[in-house]
Amino acid sequence: MRKFLIGITASVLITGCAEFPGVHKIDIPQGNVVSQEMVNQLKPGMTRNQVRFVMGTPLITDTFSPDRWDYIYSMEKGGETRTQEGVSLYFSGDQLSRISGDYRPVPPQ
């Protein structure tokens, strides 16, 4: 009986430490980092190589529609709710035709 109580007490204490105040939780970034500055450099008519130079390799290249590239970025800061942003680029042949998603090109002022 004594071993049983010690085991139960130890498991309760270990489980309770997961939400102990002051415990450091790491940030978890995933995917392609996309910024407004990067998207502002994109212009319709750019080739795939030019887009890859600006944005990097896409996280998702759809097998069924190779003319669409998706850049997805998610971040979970220290146990908070995960946030996700994404940009989809569409090509006509070898040239960029349109952009959709959380970031849109902003014209220079």
Automatic annotation (TrEMBL):
GO molecular function: protein-macromolecule adaptor activity
Membrane topology: Lipid-anchor
Pfam families from the UniProt entry: BamE
PROSITE patterns: PROKAR_LIPOPROTEIN
Any single Gene Ontology cellular-component annotation: Bam protein complex
Localization per Swiss-Prot or TrEMBL: Cell outer membrane
InterPro entries reported for this sequence: BamE, BamE-like, BamE_dom
Main location: membrane
Family: Belongs to the BamE family.
Designated name of the protein: Outer membrane protein assembly factor BamE
Lineage of origin: Bacteria, Pseudomonadati, Pseudomonadota, Gammaproteobacteria, Oceanospirillales
